[in-house]
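Q: Could you write out the predicted structure for this multi-component system? I'm mainly interested in how the pieces pack against one another.
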Amino acid sequence: MSLLEIENLRVSFDTEAGPVEAVRGISFGVNRERVAIVGESGSGKSVTGRSILRLVRPPGRVTADTLRFDGQDLLSLSERKMRAIRGQRIAMVMQDPKFALNPVMTIGDQMTEGLRRRDGLSRRKATARAIDMLAAVQIRDGERVMRAYPHEMSGGMGQRVMIAMMLIPDPDLLIADEPTSALDVTVQAEVLAILDDLVKERGMGLIFISHDLRLVSRFCDRVLVMYLGKIVERLDARDLESAQHPYTRGLLNCLPSIGGDRSALPVLDRDAAWAE
Amino acid sequence: MLIEIDDLSVTFGKGRDAVRAVRGVSFAVNARESFGLVGESGSGKSTILRAICGMAPVTGGELRIDGVPLPKRRSKAFSRRIQMVFQDPYASLHPKRSVDATLAEPLAIHGIKGRDERVVQAMTDVGLDPRFRFRFPHQLSGGQRQRVVIARALMLEPEILLLDEPTSALDASVQAEVLNLLSRIREERNLTYLMVSHDLAVIDHMCDRLAVMKDGRVVEQLNRSALASGDVREDYTRTLFAASAHEVAP
Amino acid sequence: MNALRRDWLLDPNPASHGQARLGQFYLGWLRLIRNPLAVIGLVIIGLLIFMAVFAPLVATHDPIAQNLGNRLQPPFSSGHLLGSDEFGRDIYSRIVYGSRVTLYIVLLVTLTAPVFGLLIGTVAGYFGGWIDTVLMRLTDIFLAFPRLILALAFVAALGPGIGNAVLAIALTAWPPYARVARAETLTVRKSDYIAAVQLQGAGSGRILFSHIAPMCVPSVIIRVTLDMAGIILTAAGLGFLGLGAQPPLPEWGLMISSGRKFMFDFWWVAAMPGLAIFIVSLGFNLLGDGLRDVLDPRGTGK
């Protein structure tokens, strides 16, 4: 049995012009491993991540034959029990820390809030734990950062704080939705390395949602390629070069490369059959 | 030299809060050349484009087009020579104006006749189906929006296009389409490009020469062959190179 | 036929400006009628308009014909649906005719105050600097006065009457719209699409009226519908104080005022027009809330 089991997951949104299906019947399982969901905008990759945590709001509707985490059916859990899972057992890192951190609270207060309220730790213990966690994401001057407000931090720093915050309750599964897309290229590598180490060290499961196939292949064990709400290809990350599906191949080839020739870049010739 | 930027400084704010976004930057772009500015966020690369357009507080240095210093207020004649393509196609189209209204606007401002033919022609030129003419931006995909933005920039038939991260908000496959379109248009119309990007690979693909920027300064100027052979002087360029090359060769 | 028209309206590739606009309008309409509360508001406003237009048909009596033998009749008695007032006039018919006065006030105020506020707000927000300072301090001065007191002062100076009451209300109602429009302008003016028209050489007038103002209109419209209750109440208040509509004109506030004397023995004389004001105010508020979802410019991008 996998840590997370998903069978025939569907998410649809009701609009004036009728229902629109963002995710159209996908199935996969995640163990304590690193699984990537890759696709372009509109592929349904982010909605998939959010529906696992039941964060899809009306008019969105989530249905699935199975949506089970550690033996519990996530779709039928009460909202109260779901809250206990969110953050505690399944954590999520969003794309942009700017929107995920509370702008009027210091980093320290945000990091220790859960520890003190939920786990009943004293202020001193909670602070020590938070500083340890910041050290784990390579923030050495943790005490200064704890006193800072979110706007006082750079993007890379903010994202590391987010990761630290999410990992404090020691979750079993981490969902990272484009965790580095808002960061500069030189910072990206650093944040990814930190994330990679932590995931390995703690043996948790990771769902890494990204648009960047190359990046993901270096960093994950398995890759699921999504197109218009369906999984069109499943690969082991090291077999990326031998991908079969024309969509995956197209994604691999359309990036320019330094020192490449100047001829027109290959573009995707989208085939209606892919969406079938 | 078509565009000359001489010791340009841009400072936002005053006194203690002053932010020196650009600090004494100089470079020049030849006619019909494609010149790239690479750097990470906050390096001042986009601010240079805005300064050329008169939309940033220039506090020092000089900007010259064809050897003539730019006047304090950009004239209508300036509009006909230089246009800009913006980074985010979701933010650079007026949400309440149709494609037709957006493309016809520059014609109306400059009193150019033949609105219908020109709008349809411009749409075909950038590979947009003329049936989309009366759609609103929210009815278009990101790539289609960026094509509208490019078409709008071309309406006045300028000779210089300033490209501010034209593909960074787009999907990789759409990026390829838009980059191809930009290359084709430059060839067809003998345009001069000044392009800004954080992605060294994109700049390398599009530009003949480039300047690497960091903290408001130009760190290094290179041409394409130097970059391809890895013949770079500065450490920062090398870091950037390594980070970008990672993306293409795992 | 109906399906055909729907297809035409929702055609993703409209063939003309008109079709595109109508299509957007239709989508907004669909979104509005999905909200049951907004529909209730819409029905109330619709009934008000119907009542005003067809007042002679809807009313059962002449609104100003007195019949002293039949005065102060309770509701549902002797042919008076909502009773009669101290002069034996039919309250129901007076409320029906009074809707004309209410609509007249509402219409005149909405045609003046928001337009003026929009102009002040966008100009202040777009140009900034000393223009902004001067215009906004002026707005603050108007905002600082209690609306009814200021309106009272105007009417006292200009003389009572419904026209002057409208003028007074409009003069006191514009500052909030100026504030809303300015706030909206400040978020819009730095956007790339405004930079793009500036770069095309457009003058300030063109940018203000055809690019910035359309972005401010939705918030102002929402604000107007939500303020409508206040405007109706202010008009009624002026009527109540004898400074708005003059008797025997069937204005709702005036009716409450004259019913006040009999409040304890003949409650319906004041309560019925009060109820009318309440229902209409509620209708505008519900509609305003519904419109907020439809018109929000940020909502349409998704």
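A: Regarding packing and overall arrangement: The interface with chain B takes residues 40-41, 155, 184-189, 211-215, 217-218, 240, 250-251, 254-260, 262, 264-268 of chain A (CB under 8 Å).
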